[in-house]
Amino acid sequence: QVQVVESGGGLVQAGGSLRLSCAASGSIYRINTMGWYRQAPGKQRELVAVISSGGSTNYADSVKGRFSISRDNAKNTVYLQMNSLKPEDTAVYYCNARIWALKDVDYWGQGTQVTVSS
Q1: Whole-angstrom Cα distance, residue 49 to residue 59?
Q2: N or C: which end of the chain has fewer CB within 10 A?
Q3: 36 near 95, Cβ under 8 Å?
Q4: What does R_g of the chain's alpha carbons equal in angstroms?
C-alpha cells in the first residue's frame, strides 16, 4: 500500500509565503513524477507544478516566477515553495505521486487548504 500525505497549508496575507510538503510512503519501487495540483471552489482541479525523478520541472503559467517545486528522492518527498501569494491562489492543494508498479499508477494526498487573504 502507498500513502501520500501533505502538510504546510494555512492562512496567509497576500504577498506572503507558504511551503507545502508531501511525503510518499509504503510499498514503493520507483516514483516517476511528483507534483502539485489545486482545486478552487467551483473550478476543476489544475496542475500547479510537476517534477520528474531527474529534476525536470513544469509550472502553470499563473505561478511561474512565484512558486518553486523541489524534490528529495531519498525521502520520497516533494516540496512547493509559494512566494508572492495572491488571493487567486486560494484552493485546496493536492499532492500527486506517479509510482511505477509494472505500470504507472497515480496516488493522491488528501489535500491541504491554502487561503490567501487580500
Answers
A1: 4
A2: N
A3: yes
A4: 14
Query: Does the pLDDT value for residue 102 go beyond 90?
Result: no
Q: What is the pLDDT of residues 9-43, one digit of tens each?
A: 999 999 999 999 999 999 888 999 999 999 999 99
Give me the residue label for grid cell 508572492: 84
Residues 24/4, Cβ–Cβ less than 8 Å: yes
The residue type of 78 is: V
- Encode pLDDT of 42-64 as tens digits: 999 999 999 999 999 999 999 99
Rounded to an integer, what distance in angstroms lies between the CA atom of residue 24 and that of residue 6?
9
d(CA 105, CA 84): 33
Phi (first) and psi of residue 35, to 5 degrees? -160, 175
CA distances from 102 to 28, 29, 30, 99, 105 (A): 12, 10, 10, 9, 9
- DSSP code at position 66: T
Q: What does the block give as the cell for 4?
A: 501520500
What single letter denotes the amino acid at residue 56? S
